[in-house]
Structures are given as structure tokens and as C-alpha cells.
Design brief:
273 residues; alpha/beta
Length: 273
């Protein structure tokens, strides 16, 4: 089914691995369709609690495939759709802003974690930023690259990047397109944490297993929607909506289980979704 990614489920984690290592997992239309299709599979699978995206070999993703860039610079604007992999994952309640070409990742009803294992360049930066949580290898290198190719902040990066690192850092990274290592990426907020390379995937797996063992999938789904919707809303509206959702949660089985497991000093047994 898939030509350019690997898809694996090991309860409770689905791992999507970009799999063009000889090209540092450079992004293609086919890869985009395969990732979206795999996201839909993982989202619909009750065995899956957390979805991890990483890259095969030395890179996470080197950005757009060079052949595609050459074709675009020569005036070619058409693309080839992978019609065999039509999919429409994500929560429509988040609205059109979070249902875009790659921003749909922000509407996936489960946590999406980027495990950035190497080079993350160009359009791979907004794709990584559309993931909910980002962990990086100490071998990871980030660069926006766009200004050095005569391009602009693509795929919503002008919205995503300042919200992750602040306007000053965002403009530094966009203007200069300089390379940022894992340590600096953590310091400025581009990633949540940077780890020794060989510890990255075991750490991400342990993080996902801890979340799956102790946290309500329903709660995480609702909180994810709250966070992204509230980015474009007022504090007052966010508070009112949170109170409404809090009252709704009182009647859910997960609330009762969360309280009882705490009182009984045991791990909760939340239902999968």
C-alpha cells in the first residue's frame, strides 16, 4: 500500500516513518498522501493512543524533493494526486483553519508527536510544527531554507513559528535560514526536548506509553481541540467554553474512573477511542 512511508502499530503507539532515506526523506506528493492516509488509519484505530512521526536513516525530512523544486522553477505547476489513498482525517469541529494541507495534523483526534531524528529543512519545519509535541535528537538540524531559495514562509509557517518561538526568533530563522541544532531548538522552544540520538525513539516510546497508561484519550482529544481553537479566541470565550466542557466531563465514565483510581492508588483504566 505504501511506497514512501512505513506504518507500524505496537500498542499503544502508531509510528509513521518517512522512508526515503537516500534522499533524506525529501517530501513528495506521494509521501504527503501516504502520511495523510496513515494518519486516518491511526486515528480510527482504538488500539492507538499516540501517533509518532519520524524519519528513516539520517534525516527527518529534507524538505521538498529536489526534482519537484526544479520542475517548479521551470514553470511546472501540476502535481500528481495519489487517488488510491484518499483520506480525510481530523476533527471537523476545529474548522477550516485546522483542516489545511498540513494543518490537518492539528485536528487529528489523538496526540501527534514528531521525533525529529536528523535534518528538518524547508517545508518539513511547518510539518513538524503542526505536530502537537516535538522531541529532537542531538543530531537534528533545523533550517527554514526559504529565503535562500527565493521563497517565502510556506504552509502557514508565518503563523506557526512565532507561536512556537516568538516573533523575534521566528524572524531570525526566516530571514537568515541559518542552521539550528537540537540544543538551540530546545532553548528557543522549537522543540520540547532534545535527547542523545540513540535515546530519542526509546524516550518517545516511553512518553507515549506513560500517556496511554495514565491519561484519558477522551480528555486529550478535547483538550487538544481547546488549545488550538483558543489560539484564535479571546480569554473570556476560552474560560466560558472550558467551564461548559468541565461540567460535561463530570458525567463521563472517565471522570469516575479517574477519581476512583486515584483513591484506590492504582492505574486508571480509561476507555480507548
Amino acid at each position: 500500500m505504501y511506497e514512501q512511508i512505513l506504518y507500524d502499530v505496537a500498542d499503544p503507539v502508531a509510528t509513521i516513518t518517512l522512508n526515503r532515506p537516500a534522499q533524506l526523506n525529501a517530501w513528495t506528493d506521494r509521501m504527503a498522501a501516504e502520511v495523510k492516509h496513515a494518519m486516518a488509519r491511526a486515528e480510527a484505530d482504538p488500539q492507538v493512543v499516540v501517533i509518532v512521526v519520524t524519519g528513516a536513516g539520517r534525516g527527518f525530512c529534507a524538505g521538498a524533493d529536489l526534482k519537484r523544486l526544479q520542475a517548479l522553477s521551470a514553470g511546472e505547476r501540476s502535481s500528481v494526486a495519489a487517488t488510491d489513498l484518499a483520506a480525510d482525517p481530523g476533527d471537523p469541529e476545529l474548522g477550516d483553519s485546522f483542516r489545511g494541507t498540513y494543518t490537518y495534523l492539528m485536528s487529528i483526534r489523538k496526540p501527534v508527536v514528531a521525533a525529529v531524528n536528523g535534518a528538518c529543512a524547508g517545508m518539513a519545519v511547518p510539518i513538524a510544527l503542526c505536530c502537537d509535541v516535538r522531541f529532537a535528537s542531538d543530531r537534528a538540524v533545523f533550517t527554514t531554507a526559504f529565503s535562500r531559495r527565493g521563497l517565502v514562509a510556506e504552509w502557514g509557517l508565518s503563523w506557526l513559528l512565532p507561536r512556537a518561538v516568538g516573533p523575534a526568533h521566528a524572524l531570525d530563522l526566516l530571514f537568515s535560514a541559518r542552521k539550528v541544532g537540537g540544543a538551540e531548538a530546545e532553548r528557543i522552544g522549537l522543540v520540547n526536548r532534545t535527547l542523545p540520538h540513540d535515546e530519542l525513539l526509546p524516550f518517545v516510546r516511553a512518553w507515549a506509553e506513560d500517556v496511554a497508561a495514565h491519561c484519558s484519550p477522551t480528555s486529550m482529544r478535547i483538550m487538544k481541540r481547546q488549545v488550538y481553537q483558543n489560539l484564535t479566541d479571546s480569554l473570556g470565550n476560552a474560560e466560558r467554553e472550558s467551564i461548559r466542557l468541565m461540567i460535561e466531563s463530570f458525567d463521563r465514565p472517565d471522570f469516575k474512573e479517574g477519581v476512583m483510581s486515584f483513591l484506590e492508588k492504582r492505574d486508571p483504566k480509561f476507555g480507548r477511542v
